[in-house]
Amino acid sequence: MTPSLCRDCFASPDVPVCPACGSRRVLRHEALFRLHIAHVDCDAFYASVEKRDRPELATRPVIVGGGVRGVVSSACYIARIAGVRSAMPMFKALKACPDAVVIRPDFTKYTAASRAIRALMERLTPLVQPLSIDEAALDLAGTEALHGAPPAAMLARLALEVEREVGVTISIGLAENRTLAKIAAGRDKPRGFCVLGDEAAGVLAGEPVRLLPGVGPQLAKRLAAKGITRIGDLAALDARAALSRLGEEGPDLVRRARFEDARRVDPSREARSISAETTFNTDIAAAEELERHLWRLSEKLARRLKAAELAAVGVVLKLKTAGFATRTRTQRLPSPTQLPDTLFAAARALLARETDGTMFRLIGIGAAGLAPASEADRPDLADPDATRRSAAQAAIDRLRERFGAATIMRGRGLPR
Hints:
15 helices, 5-stranded mixed sheet, Alpha-Beta Plaits, Dna Ligase, domain 1, single chain, 15 strands
């Protein structure tokens, strides 16, 4: 009999509807109780957190983003049905879904929810590798003896715990390796639980190559120009053909298409990116005006670093021209920091080299490399004012936490 699991009461029914609880969410798969690599992906995470905190929006389309020329950070599934997608320009999103409620992102709130979900995952296994604020890879090998239940059952419990304790939903992929687990997690959203075993190669052969992790739109276009549009097309190439037709990256692409993945789940290899950016309502060329936006973003980046208990090792400046060309410039810092002044000073120097009359539509600042918060802004004999600046910023942060972000504003951030 094919192994089965009710995702709501954890029974093992042999029929599609669980006789114990009436649930139709019954998993059935030959390898259900043998697989132990999982990928957990939150469903429309930012929008879900906003709906959790504003129940009156439960049946409304919600878009997290902002600005007439900004982009969509997240959209709930109601908005997605209308055609809204992440990274879509806001004007297009509102054209597709004019009755959507638009909410500015609150990354402090999202980080708190992410930490709560991570804590629940770490109850299952110490092998949790966060991949972004809303997804992670898990390895539950050997945990059955500890929990008294196979990984699939514990993952089903996790999904219910996240809904109950955090108030958002997750989708789960379970497979023999990380690539397949990630693909599985996206196949049955929202509140999904997909299992991929030995049948994966056949089931996925006809899917577009874009389904493969790491294959973006540009790479997909290059592959299509060579007659490769499906995963099966790519998997069928031998090593010599892959190298001659696709270049040096060819063999690796073929391995991915064959779902060959020996990567371990490594908690020490967290992939994090902390940044802040804004898209202007009208294009800007003036250095002074660009600096004013850069200062506000430096303050925002500093807040996000503190919320994540991290420090920036360097800064990266991002600019997008009126013609949509992207420029990125990076500068390493003398020591890790969480101070907006230090972040701004480094980014300002980078910006000065770019303000040559070019019109820009977007500016952003990010952390180029991350260190623990304990490494941030340590006393430095070569910089006797460092301790004073840290104390002053801490006082400002305390006042803002108590009375609101607008309580204290620096002059350089005020509109002219």
